[in-house]
Amino acid sequence: MAEAVVSSVLQNVREFTTQEAKFLSGVSHQVEVAQTELQLMQGFLKDADARQGQDETVRIWVAKIRDAAYDLEDVIQTYGLKVVSKKKRGLKNVLKRFACIFKEGVELHRIGNEIENITTRISDLRSSLQKYNIKELTTDRDGGGGESSLQLHKRLRRSYSHVVERDVVGLESNVEELVMHLVKDENRHQVVSVWGMGGLGKTTLARQLYHDKKEFCFKLISTTKEQKQEIKDMTDDEIAKKLFLVLREMRCLVVLDDIWRINTWNILEIAFPNAETESTILLTTRNQAVATLPNRNAFLHKLQPLNENESWNLLEKKAISERADIDLGMYTKKRELGMNMLRHCKGLPLAIIVLAGVLARKNTVGEWERVHENVHEYIRRGIGHEEEYEGASWVLALSYDDLPYYLKPCFLYLGHYPEDCIISVSTLTKLWVAEGLIFLRQQRYGSEKTMEDIARDCLSELVEMCLVQVGKSGSTGTIKYCRIHDLVRDMCLLKAKEESFLQINYSLQKNTSFVAAEAAQLGKIRRLAIYLNENADRLVSSRDETNGDVRSLLFFGLKEWRPKSEKGLLSPLKDFKVLRVLKVEGLCAREVDLPGEIGNMVHLRFLSVKNNNIKRFPPSLGNLVCLQTLNFRVQSGRVVIPNVIMKMKQLRHLYLPWNYRTKGKLELSNLGHLQTLYNLSSEYCDLKDVGRLTNLRKLRIRVSSSLQNLEEILKSTGSTLNRIRSLIVFVENNISEEQAMQIVSSCRGIYKLKLQGPTAELPKDLRNYPNLTKLELDYCGLSEDQMGILENLPNLTILRLLGEAFEENTKILVFSKGGFPSLEFLYVSKMHQIIELRVEEGAMPSLCRLKIKYCKGLTTLTDGLRYLTNLKELTITRMRRELHCRIQEDGEDFYKIQHVPSLVIGEPGDF
Fold this sequence. Notes:
Residues 5-90 form the Disease resistance N-terminal domain. By secondary structure, the protein is an alpha/beta fold. Among the domains are: 2-147, no CATH class; 171-221 and 228-302, P-loop containing nucleotide triphosphate hydrolases (Rossmann fold), CATH 3.40.50.300; 329-390, no CATH class; 395-496, Winged helix-like DNA-binding domain superfamily/Winged helix DNA-binding domain (Arc Repressor Mutant, subunit A), CATH 1.10.10.10. It has 29 helices and 30 strands. It has a 17-stranded parallel β-sheet, sandwiched between helices. A 4-stranded parallel β-sheet has the order 2-3-1-4. Strands 5-7-6 form a 3-stranded antiparallel β-sheet. Helix 2 (28-51) packs antiparallel against helix 3 (56-89) and helix 2 (28-51) packs parallel to helix 4 (94-127). The two termini are 59 Å apart.
C-alpha cells in the first residue's frame, strides 16, 4: 500500500502548499525537491507492493518509504500551520517582533534541515532499488515484474471442470433456479452471473451446474494432433473468431469462473456472440461490475450464506465419522460444540470447510473442546493442519490484493471498528475525507463531485467487490449503515498490521495493551483504535513516545464509562501532536470541561465528542483551522460555546449542541465549505448567515423566538435555501410556528423534511416540491384537514407519524382512495388519541412496509388492510393486549393480515 500512501502524501502536500504558499516561502525549494523525489519513487511502488508479501527485505523497504512519506507531510504541515498562526496573531511590540523574527530564522533553518534529511532518506531508498530488483511499472501491476502474491494465489486456486465435489450442501435451490435461466427458453438469459464474496461457494455452484446430468447433455470431441497444432499456431484474434462461430452455430454452455475485472471481460467479449445465438455464459465473480455486464441479456444471482441447519449439515459431513457405532452422547456434545463454533463462520462455506478440516482428525469431545476455546484462530489460519486446510484469511485476502491502490486504505480503515459493529456511513465517509484518503480518487472526478460523494462511491465499490455488506439503505437508495463479515475483518486487521496502518489497544489499565494480528509490524504506529472496558482507568497512556506519530485516534467501548478519576481525563490527548482524527464519543458519564490543550492539535480535521457530558468548550478551539467536521452534540444541559467557529474556514460539517449559549451571535457567514449545519438556533445565530453558505445541503434549525425581518431575510437567501436537501425544523412554541413554515416554504428542493413541535398548518404548496420523498411529523398537532395535503404528495415514499402528529381531538385517521400513490413505508407511533386507522380501497397502492407501535387507543385493525396487496412486511408491537390477541393466527382479525408474507408481532404494551 506504499503506492497509496505516497500518492496521498503528494496530493495532500500539493494542496497544502497551494493554500499556504506565502507562509512556506522560506522552505519552498526543499519542499519542491522532496516532492520530486516522491514522484520519482511512485512508479516503482507498484512492483514493490505486489512483491512484499513474498520478500521480507522488500517489505522492510516499503515500510521505510511509508514512514518517510508520512514524516515529510507532518513536518511540512506542522511548520506551515505554526507560521500561519503567528502571522495572523501579529505582534505590536517592535522588540518582541525582532526577537520573533530571529526565532523564526532559527526555526526555518531547522525545518529546512529536517525536510532535507527526509529527502535524503527517500533518495537513498530509491538508490537501493537495484539491490532489491524492484522495477518501475507504468502499466497495471499485473502487467509485468514477476509473479505477484495475487497471481500466485489465483494460480493455486485454479479450478478445473472435471473435479466433482462431494458433500455439497445448501446449493440445491440455487441449482434449480439457475438451470431455468440457462436452458429454459422462456426464461433463458445470454449471461447468468453468480456474484458473492470469496468463500461463498461460487465455483462449487458452477461445477454443480456443469455436471447437472438432468438438464445438460454433453458432446465431447477430442482434437486430433493436427487440430491441436492448428490451434497452437492461431493468433488470439483467429481463436476468438473460431470460438465466435462455434457458439453462434451450436448451443453451448461456457463457464467463465472467477472473473475479477471488467477489463478481462472486455478482452474476451469479442469471442462471444451477442445476437443470433442459443449459447449461454455462466460467469462467477466477486465483482458486481463484472456480474452486470453491459449490453448483455444478463441475470444476476447473488449467492447467500448457508443457514444454521445447512451449516451444521456441511460440518457434520466433513468432520464426523460415518461409523454406525458412534456414541449418541458423544454426538450430542459434538453437535452442541459444533453449533457454537459455527456462529463464527456466519454461513461462509469456506470457513466451515476449514473448521471441519481441523475437527476431522479430532475424535474425542475433549479435542473438540480445545478447538472450541480458540475457534476464531483455527478458522482464520487453519492452525494444526496448514498443509491440508489453509485458513480462510488468505482466500479472502485475494479480494484485498486485487483492489485498486486508492481503495486499499479505505478498506483498511474499517479495521478500526469492533467485531459485529454497525458502521455509520455518514461518519465513515467523513473520516476518510479527514484522513486525505479520498484525494486518490478525486483525481478521476475533478471538482464535479464533493469529497463526500466520492467517498460514498468508494464505499459502493467495496460493496460491489463483496468486501463490505450493506446494513441499511436510505429513502433515496444511499447506504446509511454498513458492516463487514467477521472473517473479512480478521483479514483486514492482518493486512492493516502488515502495512503498519492500524493498531488496536484493549483496556489501558496498568499500561497493558494488546496488538491485533500477529504479523510483525514494521514502521511507526499512525492510527490507534482503543477498546475500553470496565477495567480501563484512563483514555490513553501518557508519555508514550509513539503518541507523537499517531494521526487517527478512535475510542470504542462502554457507554457512560466512569473512570476512577476525572482529573486530567482528556488532558493526555495533548501528546498527540499530528492528530488528524479524534473520535471520543459516549464515554464521559460525569460532567467535564474540554481541556484547553485541545487547541494545540492544529492538524485536526475531524473532532467528535458526541454524547459526552461536556459542559464547556475552551476558546483555544479557534486554533483548529484545519477542522472539516466538528461534532458538539453533547449530553449536558446548556453548553457554553466560545464564538470562535468562524476561524475554522475549512469546516464542512458542524453539529452544534441541542441546548447552548454563547456570547453574542455565533458568526458562521464565512464558512463557505459548510455542507451540514445541525441545531442552528434562532436565539444565538443569525439566519442571514445561512444565505452565505452556498454549499449547505443539510440544515436543522431550532426556531425558539420571533425573527425580525424574516421575509426580507428569506428573500435574500432564497437561492441558497433552495439548494438544501435535508431540512429539520424544531418549533419551540406557537409564536414562531408561522415563521417556521415560512422557512420550509423557502426550501423547495428538499428530499427530506422533519417537523418537530406545534405546526397547525403545512405549506399549501408542499405538493409542488418535486423531490420530497421522506416526511416525518413529530408532535406537530396538525389539524385533521392537513391529511389532504399529505396524501397528495406525489413522490412521498416514507411517512413517519409520531406522538401527537395530529391534534388531540383527531380520533380517526383516514387514508383515502387514491391517496399516497408512491408511499412505500408508513410508521405510526405513540399516537395514543387515535382509535382507528381507516384504509379505503385504492389507498397507498405501493405500500410494502407498515409499522404500528405504542398506539394505546387502537383496539382493532382496520378491515382495509386487506386492500394493501403489495404489503410485504407488517410490524405490530407494544399495542393493547386486546389487539395482540385479535391478530394471532386464531384471532378474529387475523384474516385482515394473513396475506402479508412477513408478520412481526412483538410484545404487547404495559397500558
